Amino acid sequence: MKIIILLFSTFFYFSTVQASEVSEWFEKESNQFLEIIINKDGTESENYEKYKIFINKNFAVKSIAYGLIGENIINKSSENELSLYLEVFTDYLIKTIYKLANSRSGSIELKDVDVKDNIYIIKSIISDKKASANLYWKVVETGSSFKIIDVIVENTSYFVTKKSEFNKILRKNKGSLKALIAEIKKI
Amino acid sequence: MKKHLKVILLIISFSFLQINLSYSNEDAPLSSISYDEIYDPIEPINRAVLNFNFFIDDVAIRPIVKTYKFIAPEPIEKGVSNFFSNLKEPIRTISFIFQGEFYKSINSIGRFTINTLTSLGTFDLATRVGMEKNETDFGITLAKGGVSSGPYIVIPIIGPSNLRDFSGDVVEYFVDPISNNVPNREYIALGNGLNERAEIDEQLDRVRDASSDRYEMIKSIYYQNRNAQLEEEYIQNLPVPKIYIE
pLDDT tens-digit profile of A67-126? Predict the structure, then answer.
């Protein structure tokens, strides 16, 4: 009985410590993100550069990019194709996040942290003068820090939405990664 | 009313028939959270209707909505939105009864009573006193009763739906105690439609230029939002990428 209580307490202790670590990381990075959104003093290319640094630091870009095309396409593509895809996708991710965030201002408030299958689900609320929206972040621990693998605004997941778009392009072009690269370059 | 009843029975029968059709068709998703292969057998027609909808929106609806949002102050917009939402509380009450959610059903009719008596529904006092709004409709009721979503369809002017949800909308149109008992119900339907369009104005603007395929994007967003209304742990169960070393 004592062992069970000890195990339970240890598990509870580590879960709490990890949840507080991820909360601390989130508070810091979300404040930085807000600063980038609000502070539009620089030129467009300077502001874009700030987004680029933020996304490369905090997003699990490779996991998202590879997750969107799936194992079959990864296995049949060459190293060169994959590295070109990763490069083009990184730019695409920055552009879409830039477009989504550019019209926003206000505050991000942390509400709750949940853990499922080693993935942290951070619930926050983004609000401005007009309205507020639920914003969920799915985050994984990568050694010394944390990386975002999905952003869910209200009920719409970035990963799920993009996966269905990418799947459609790949199906239409018989699984050609080149065709997908050409298509996402257009955005 | 007899004629209406026949239409309702026909739709419900067709929806239930869809359960067997869907299960016998391997292309149709069995799980409500299959996003990769949404059953869409009439995609070319749907795409044409979506393009038509965007055209109508560009030339007629969008300018009205933009003007309205420009002229109307924030509290007016909120009041109009509350008014139309309040009109739906009685039909939500009926839907919750069919779903066996009696507490939510009482909550809905209570909200309708409080908000109508205090402000004709323009101010949501009920939420302030702890009676939170719960969204539902007949499409959700059919889904909870085990009816599969059926094929994805884009309705002219109205927008994305599927056979089950569209059947639910038609049933609601005939059994809604409010719109069936007011004169000129068409005006209420029109006002409600414009209000709903105004509410998603920002999102729609983003969809226009943030996607390589807006048809797929809208379809995916529609299913994600419907599944969120059906599943308890929706956010937790959404698919995630496999983790690679970064």
Answer: 999 999 999 999 999 999 999 999 999 888 877 776 666 778 888 888 888 899 999 888
Number of folded domains in chain A?
Answer: 1
Query: Would residue B7 count as lying in a domain?
Result: yes
Sequence-ordered list of residues with C-beta below 8 angstroms from that of B146, at least 6 positions apart, any chain: B19
CB-closest option in A149, A154, A187 to B240:
A149
Residue B217 sits in which domain range?
2-31+48-229
Q: Give CB contacts under 8 A, 24+ apart, made by A9-15.
A: A15/A115
Query: What pTM does this model have?
Result: 0.82
User: ipTM of the predicted structure?
Assistant: 0.81
Express each pLDDT in A42-82 by its tens digit: 777 888 888 889 898 899 999 999 999 999 999 999 999 99
- pLDDT exceeds 50 at position B20: no
Give the whole-angstrom CA distance, residue B189 versus residue B202: 22
- Pairs across A and B, CB distance < 8 A: 101
User: What is the Cα B49 distance to its own chain's centre?
Assistant: 18
Q: Is A149 on the interface with B (CB under 8 A)?
A: yes
pLDDT in tens, B218-245: 999 999 999 999 988 899 999 999 887 6
- Chain A residues closer than 8 Å to B216 by CB: 164-165, 168
| CATH number for the domain that contains residue A145 | 3.10.450.710
